[in-house]
Amino acid sequence: xxxxxxxxxxxxxxxxxxxxxxxxxxxxxxxxxxxxxxxxxxxxxxxxxxxxxxxxxxxxxxxxxxxxxxxxxxxxxxxxxxxxxxxxxxxxxxxxxxxxxxxxxxxxxxxxxxxxxxxxxxxxxxxxxxxxxxxxxxxxxxxxxxxxxxxxxxxxxxxxxxxxxxxxxxxxxxxxxxxxxxxxxxxxxxxxxxxxxxxxxxxxxxxxxxxxxxxxxxxxxxxxxxxxxxxxxxxxxxxxxxxxxxxxxxxxxxxxxxxxxxxxxxxxxxxxxxxxxxxxxxxxxxxxxxxxxxxxxxxxxxxxxxxxxxxxxxxxxxxxxxxxxxxxxxxxxxxxxxxxxxxxxxxxxxxxxxxxxxxxxxxxxxxxxxxxxxxxxxxxxxxxxxxxxxxxxxxxxxxxxxxxxxxxxxxxxxxxxxxxxxxxxxxxxxxxxxxxxxxxxxxxxxxxxxxxxxxxxxxxxxxxxxxxxxxxxxxxxxx
Length: 479
Fold this sequence. Notes:
Helix content is 32%, strand content 12%. The chain is α/β, with parallel strands linked by helices. The strands form four sheets. The protein has a five-stranded parallel β-sheet with strand order 12-11-10-13-14, sandwiched between helices. The protein has a four-stranded parallel β-sheet with strand order 3-2-1-8. Strand 1 (103-106), helix 2 and strand 2 (132-135) form a beta-alpha-beta unit. Helix 8 packs across helix 13 (427-437) and helix 13 (427-437) packs parallel to helix 14 (449-462). Mean pLDDT is 85; it is low at 1-20 and 29-73.
């Protein structure tokens, strides 16, 4: 009886190792795809298999996953000089605009926070319309006297960190034109004609702003299709529809001509500019789902732009100093956790139907009750015991501040600190909102955009609990 010849032992071992080799590699690859974090989306790089140390041995197989290095800062590549023409700014903005780029700007008025919202909407509009946003300075119109002059957006907010976060170019009006800080100051800036869109029904409101920039502006009404509700032209416009209207290539209604509705102060009828698109305001704009969507957690402008707008180091230092002085904390000591409170009364009294505004305002005990809720939530969710409270308010009555003192809350006395004399009138709201942003919890006034934005910062930047106190009639915030 004959038997089939057997394979040499070394050959059998080699084939067995080869099959084992393949099995191990396949299993390892499958396990890597199962357990690798899905959000990384990084390419797998396999290290070469090292040669066997001796014949007949099974090589040890391994897979090395390497991650790409973190991206380097893009602030240098996005520096303003990269997006303007020439090395120096003149008195004419058209001298600074690059012919191969398109720009967009807006004339933002209102209080400090309303202008901030307007600027953030402008930046988002520039992003979705492929235009470089030209950010105006803060301009006095509401709560701030005209004698305060303008203050640059980049003096208050860190534009370099914002450019890096958005990976988009951002420039200011000072990058394209020399103009005076005060409207009545002598200037060599040329007065230039500019055609803009009016996204609101009625007369445009940006004349005082355009005067600061020495612009002679005429306005064309945006078509009805731009509004979230075309039947209500006083309502918000749709950011995406406006982006389509302004898009540099084949814009919406490219073949239509719209009459200039409002002549410039000098009687010019300039059509909307294609190179530097501009709007009377970008405050009343949204993504289309609902008006005043900044009040909603899903607001795209907040999520993709405004949450990344951080204060400059100068402003943070001023806020830090003010907080420490209010709580009597040494500079060398750690900053104690605190809850910020913003009580807005003042001009809200004009919206009350009751002859006594006090019937409309939320009483201080309502704010104190909300503060206790925030304290409890901080203890339950973070194990953080917070006893310090810092309040800011436009209420000037002696009784109100006596009640604040009785609660043991602290405030920043801008008169004693000589904020206006040292830094200018704009720094009254700037320091207040900057201190809010450093709090671990926040209680504000419903309907106040300053309270709204401060609450969003505390929620996003420190994960802190917030509350907005209702008002309008007696007991509005009872619960």
